[in-house]
Sequence to fold (75 residues):
Amino acid sequence: MTGTRTIDALGTYCPVPIHLLEQASAEARSGTLFLVLADDPMIEVDLPAWCHRTGSRLVRITEADGEWTALVETI
Fold:
């Protein structure tokens, strides 16, 4: 692993959170951890699908008071 980067997608809606993660991961080394912050409920569907498509690993995703926090490790 090379470190953790935060993707603050609060206040944005599909597909913006995934686009922000995709852009950041394209510039990152394999093994980088991304902490994704989002308040769009579609992140629960979109993020696992993106991880499956890219081969990245969804370490965890949690929701509290309408805000999702996810940890993703890039390949």
Summary: Residues 4-73 form a domain with the Translation Initiation Factor IF3 fold (CATH 3.30.110.40).
